[in-house]
Each structure stands twice: as C-alpha cells, then as structure tokens.
Amino acid sequence: MAIESPTHPSPGTTGPAAAAPPSLSGRARLVLFVLCAAQFMVALDFSVLNVALPVLGEDLGLSRSGLQWAVTAFALPSGGFLLLFGRIADLYGRRRLFLTGLAVFGASSVLATLAWDPASFLAGRALQGLGAAVIVPTGMSLLTTTFPEGPLRDRALGISGTLLSLGFTVGMVSGGVLTDTLGWRSTMGLLAGAAVIVLLLAPKLLTESRTPDRPKLDVPGAATVTGGLLSLIYSLSTAAEHGFGRADVQVTLVLGVVLLGSFAVIESRSAAPLVSLPMLRRRTVAFGNLGGLATFSMMSTIVFVLTLYLQDLLHLSALGTGLVFGVQGLVSAAAGIYAPRIVGRIGARRTLVLSLLGQGLFIGALLGLGEDSGVWLATVAVSLASACHLGAIIAYGLTVTSGVPDAEQGLATGLVTTTQQVGLTVGIPLLGVLSTTQGSLFDGVRLVVAAAAVILVATGLVVGAGLRRAG
Questions:
Q1: Three-state DSSP state, 404
Q2: How far is CA 231 from CA 67, 80, 297, 387, in A?
Q3: CB neighbours of residue 433 within 10 Å
Q4: DSSP for 23-79, written as a single string
Q5: Would you call 216 helix, strand, or coil by DSSP?
Q6: What is the pLDDT of residues 374-404, one digit of tens each?
Q7: Does pTM top 0.85 for this prediction?
Q8: Which of 55, 214, 379, 388 is deepest in the core (most CB within 10 A)?
Q9: Residue 365: how many CB atoms within 10 A of its CB?
C-alpha cells in the first residue's frame, strides 16, 4: 500500500509549495530507512573490498588474475540477473523476494568472511552478487510503489540516490581503515552485519505487493537477456585485465551481442514479455536510461583512475586518498539534500540534462592535473562532478519511473537498476583498455578523463534533445 501524502504541486511548479520539502510520517521514515540501508549496503560492497585486495590475495593465495575474479564474481550475477528478478518480483511478490535476497546476501557475506581458500571466497562473492541482483530491483520497486508519484517519491529517491553514491565513497574510505586495523575479513563481516540488521527490521515494516494478474514468466526472454548480460560483463571485465586479444573475451563479446539481439526479437513476439517494448519505446525510459548509463559508468571510471593517479603518481597515502574521496562523499550528501528541490523547481528532465553537462565539464577540469601536483584540483573537481552525478542519479530514476503504473514498477525499476549496475561494471573495463594504449600512466589518465568528459557532454546533449521531443 502506498504512503499517502497531502496535495503538492507537480514537478516544475514554482513558489513556496514547490520549494518546501514534503514531510514523512514516522512509519514512512522507517520504511525508507530499511530500503535505503539495503541499497547502501550493496553500494558499499562495490568498493569496500578494493583496497583490501592485495592483502586478501596474499592471505588466500589468490593470483593477480584471481584478484580480478574477486570483483568479477560479484559483478557477473549482480548485473546479469537484475531484469529477471525485477520481473519475478512483480509477479510473485516484491517483499518476499526482497527478504530472500537479504538472506542470501547475509549468508554469503558470512561465507566470504570465513573463507578458507580461493574457491570458498569466490563462491561467497558470487552469491553476494546474486543476492544483490535480488535486493536492488525489489528494493527500488518497493520504494516506488510505497511512495506515490510526486514530492514524496522525489524526496525518497533523492535520499536513496544520496546513500547509493555515498555508499560507494564510504566503502573506499572504510575499506582501507578496516583492512589496516582489523584485517580484510572485517570488510566482509561489515556487510554480513548490515544484512542481519536490515533483515530483522524489514518484515515488520514492509507490506507485500505484486502484479494483480500473473502472466507466465517469459522464459526464453529471461534466458537470452540473462545470458547476454553475463557474457557481456564477463567479456568486458576480462578485457580490462588481459585486453581484447584473448579468444574467450572475443567469443563472449560476440555471444553477448547475439543473445541480446535475440532477446529483442523474442520480446517483440512474446505475449507476456519480460521487457515491454512499448515501454522501451517511451522516450523517457530510453533517454532516461541512456543518461543513467553515462553518469554511472563515467563516474566509477573517474574514481578508479583518480585512485591510481593519487597513489601511483603523487604517492599519496591510502589515508590521504581516502580523505580526497571523503570530501567527495560529503559534497554528494549535501547535493542529495538539495537535488529534489531542484527537481521540484525545474523538473526531472532538465535536472538530468544539466547534471550530465555539469558532470562532464567538471571532469574535463581534471585535464589540468600535473604529473607531480594536483591534489587540490582533483579534490575540488571530482567533488563537484560527484554533486552533478548525484543530481543525475535522482533525475534519471524519476524520469524513467514517472507515469509507469504500479503493476509495471518492478519492470521499470529493473531497467533503472540494470542500467546502474551495468554502468558500474562496464565503465572501467571500456576506458581502462583505452588507457593501456598510452605510454605512461599519466597519459592514460588524461586520455580517460578527456574521453569521459566528451561522453558525458555528448550524452547530455542527446538526452536533452530526446526528452524535449517526449512531450
């Protein structure tokens, strides 16, 4: 059941009513806390382990390629199964599947914490990714069906987007601190504890929701889209480490494209498609997701290359690097407070376009970095770019889900979260391979920065033109 709100002006209305943030009841705050905590936990998992990988590898006997699988084992299922679980939740119950995902995520985090060899650790990471593939779309669809379209949903998505961005940053900072003080296992133990807390609170606060009529699950569509995403993510993740020359990379890349093409054909002929092609033909859905893909993929890439720049070129300590990204996290949190107000004044579509353009321009400012100096420029530019990134996260989620009936919210939010996870997964491999074509790390960083800036500005212009014609 949706949480009711008093009458408010629609997004784009100006005046005091538009500027004042809507109030949330005590129960609504608790529901929002549970759903946002789950999203924060998954975002934390994307980054908390990164700085612990060298220590982890030495402890468990993982080779360098094995360390790459510590990341890929999570990314494969978390990106590959999102659409499938989003649709299953629509049909069989979002609350039920959300709780199942939390249980899988918590149990697998315990397995990763107690891992006794590489195989047990990688199994834990893969199951974490599977749990995340359940939690993310079901949590988002529970949020959009709980909070009605309008100011309450705007505010809820604003808080969720802030914590999503903050979780990635907090993971980078806390991962180093935990590894240095308590060991790498504490990073996985942190996730297990968070899952237990959310799992204890969620059953008392969340109500069940599902699509009233239950069409048959589109099995051929589910098989092709899942297989296609798994193949594509594997190919790009492996290419980041070994390049595109390997046979397995080439085969899985072609297989992924073929399967996703087959998925499009199957959906056009299915009586109960996994993805409604009329929904994909909506300009708000198509161009909103394009903006989301650009903002996530380019921001994750810039954070990655800046980490290399600060530590390998400027020889900044792990703590110093953490402080740089700590500032970024604080600015993102502040942006999350004000972004819904901006959406209320100028609308989600304009906010998305301006955020993409701003993110691209501030990333472009990083071209001013030097080979032996640039900490202050890096701190300011990445923080302001992150503020724009946060605005884009909120705006693209609102753009894609606005006007979608509750019965299809799981499908719409499945697209939103698939875009998010695929963006987080593919950005680093794509531009990481580009950086290896340069003779030095500094030249590689500059090339990646330039490419990211151009991609974001170009995407902002394309999205603006597409949404302008959406009516």
A1: coil
A2: 19, 9, 18, 33
A3: 16
A4: P--HHHHHHHHHHHHHHHHHHHHHHTTGGGHHHHHHHHT--HHHHHHHHHHHHHHHH
A5: coil
A6: 889 999 999 999 899 988 988 888 888 776 6
A7: no
A8: 388
A9: 17
